[in-house]
Specification:
mainly alpha; cell membrane; transport; transmembrane
Length: about 350
């Protein structure tokens, strides 16, 4: 383990840029779990295909370029542990209507009290679950202090600089296209923005090391000698970009009154801090702490390595099952999209 604050801040900034770009151009909140859950409720719209496609395509590229960025998981980190973690995360994300991206980044950037409460809940539950279940030990993390490394290497720093520059150019380019074309062509720009946002998110997660369960478990184990606070820098870097960006859109007169390639800014309708939200946070955090994985990093790790570790595959399958379980209990499970009504002759 290494505490790498500059890497965390740079990669976090990329995540924040992806979230802000999707919001200001398309008017949608970036949420990985929501992107998955839509498939289970029959929402197969093209923007969802583009976003998830961008995330998975970039994951494959990241796995090809930097295969060492992904963990080789030990046998002591069992498939059963990973599956239970995935089930709890999927169920919690569905019950609480969000995860570390939708609530943790976008919700807190919107200054949502609901998202703030959810984030505090899943953070506390994650720390408790990782500490009490010995996730760091199960993952084989050495019981030694994680050294502070400001400058890992010139190669790593240059990669981060190029990634941040690519994120700025990608978001700015999509915004310029949306402003400069006719209204009838904006759907194409909207889909391109979704593709870019998904891709940037995957690259940002890979660069920061958040695709490694060991890195996350080390953060969620503050009493373990190898505690690694890099994840705090990742979230901080994301909010340093997303918070002023979202607040500019919501409050500034100079902000566009509607998304550059959309009709309206779409935000979650729920506002109350209720029992369902807190239950979702508890379940999500418990699964996160048990496994060291949440939806975005798990999906990236699933496709990046070609043949994924069985623990990652079990986690992702159980995560989808957890979401499906909640959808079924709410009567919203629809694995097939509703058929379009035939147009009158």
């Amino acid at each position: 383990m290494q505490f790498t604050p500059l890497v965390g801040l740079a990669g976090g900034a990329v995540l924040g840029l992806a979230a802000f770009g999707k919001y200001v151009i398309n008017g949608r909140v970036l949420g990985i779990s929501g992107g998955i859950k839509g498939w289970l409720t029959g929402d197969w719209r093209s923007w969802r295909v583009a976003f998830n496609g961008g995330l998975l395509a970039a994951a494959m590229v990241a796995g090809f370029i930097t295969p060492a960025a992904f963990d080789t998981l030990p046998a002591s980190y069992t498939v059963e542990r990973a599956a239970l973690g995935g089930l709890l995360v999927g169920l919690g994300a569905s019950v609480g209507n969000g995860c570390t991206s939708g609530h943790g980044i976008c919700g807190n950037a919107r200054l949502s009290a609901r998202s703030f409460a959810y984030t505090l809940t899943f953070m506390a539950a994650g720390v408790a679950a990782a500490t009490l279940s010995g996730t760091a030990q199960a993952l084989g993390i050495l019981a030694q202090t994680a050294p502070l490394v400001w400058w890992p290497s010139d190669v790593v720093i240059n990669q981060g600089a190029m990634l941040v520059a690519a994120a700025i150019l990608g978001v700015a380019g999509c915004g310029a296209l949306a402003k400069g074309i006719e209204a009838g062509s904006r759907k194409a720009v909207s889909l391109l923005t979704e593709l870019v946002a998904g891709g940037l998110f995957a690259f940002g997660l890979t660069y920061t090391g958040m695709v490694r369960p060991t890195k996350v478990a080390a953060f969620l184990s503050p009493l373990y000698p190898a505690w690694d606070p890099t994840l705090m820098c990742v979230m901080g870097g994301a909010l340093l970009v997303a918070l002023p960006g979202f607040q500019w859109v919501k409050r500034a007169r100079s902000a566009p009154p509607k998304p550059l390639a959309g009709d309206a800014y779409l935000e979650p309708a729920a506002k109350a801090i209720d029992a369902r939200l807190l239950l979702g946070g508890l379940l999500f955090g418990a699964g996160w702490g048990l496994s060291g994985m949440c939806p975005g990093p798990a999906l990236v790790a699933l496709v990046a390595t070609g043949v994924p570790p069985p623990q990652v595959a079990a986690y992702c399958g159980a995560m989808v099952a957890g979401m499906a379980l909640d959808c079924a209990s709410q009567g919203t499970l629809a694995l097939v999209p509703p058929s379009k009504k035939a147009k009158p002759a």
